[in-house]
């Protein structure tokens, strides 16, 4: 058991389709603490850092186009074991495989060729969360929490 922070993004499809509140409610319903929250327009440089493991993939251009198609909401949420738990709450990457009750299962679906639009991102490890928080909340780098 450990208190962790996760970096959660409501992606452009989630913002455009009115799911900011739904994602925030899912966080609050589980009584995780929202430590920071802001709306931003992602830059190509932020996305290259955030998706550094995917920049060489053939579909990276699709990801970049999608993630710059509108504003996103960046959230730092904290709680015991939030990283693994929130990934389960989000559901699998492919919305077609996401069960009802998960965020992607309730608010996303397959749209055909192109980027996978799946409403949310959440960190997959403590190390990723630390890296991602610096990318989206650079102003917090020297703060305690
Ligand atoms: P997750 O977001 O579930 O952690 P990944 O880290 O594997 O998944 O991928 C990051 C994001 O890139 C996905 O959420 C999705 O939006 C997009 N993506 C992943 N794989 C593909 C693909 N094969 N084609 C198009 N977009 C993809």
Automatic annotation (TrEMBL):
One GO term (biological process): UTP biosynthetic process
GO molecular function term, any single one: ATP binding
Gene3D superfamilies: Nucleoside diphosphate kinase-like domain
UniProt-recorded name of the protein: Nucleoside diphosphate kinase
Family stated for the protein in its record: Belongs to the NDK family.
Coiled coil: none
Cofactor: Mg(2+)
InterPro entries: NDK-like_dom, NDK-like_dom_sf, Nucleoside_diP_kinase
Record SMART domains: NDK
Enzyme class: transferase
EC numbers, comma separated: 2.7.4.6
Gene: ndk
The Nucleoside diphosphate kinase-like domain, residue ranges: 3-144
Alphabetically ordered keywords of this record: ATP-binding, Kinase, Magnesium, Metal-binding, Nucleotide metabolism, Nucleotide-binding, Transferase
Source superkingdom: Bacteria
């Amino acid at each position: 058991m450990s208190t962790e922070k996760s970096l959660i993004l409501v992606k452009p499809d989630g913002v455009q389709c009115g799911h900011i509140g739904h994602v925030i409610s899912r966080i609050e319903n589980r009584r995780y603490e929202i430590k920071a929250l802001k709306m931003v327009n992602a830059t190509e440089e932020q996305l290259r850092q955030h998706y550094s493991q995917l920049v060489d993939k053939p579909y990276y251009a699709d990801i970049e186009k999608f993630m710059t198609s509108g504003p996103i909401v960046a959230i730092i949420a904290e709680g015991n074991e939030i990283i693994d738990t929130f990934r389960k709450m989000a559901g699998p990457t492919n919305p077609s495989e996401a069960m009802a009750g998960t965020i992607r299962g309730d608010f996303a679906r397959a749209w055909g060729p192109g980027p996978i639009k799946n409403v949310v991102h959440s960190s997959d490890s403590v190390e990723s969360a630390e890296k991602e928080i610096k990318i989206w909340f650079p102003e917090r780098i020297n703060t305690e929490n």
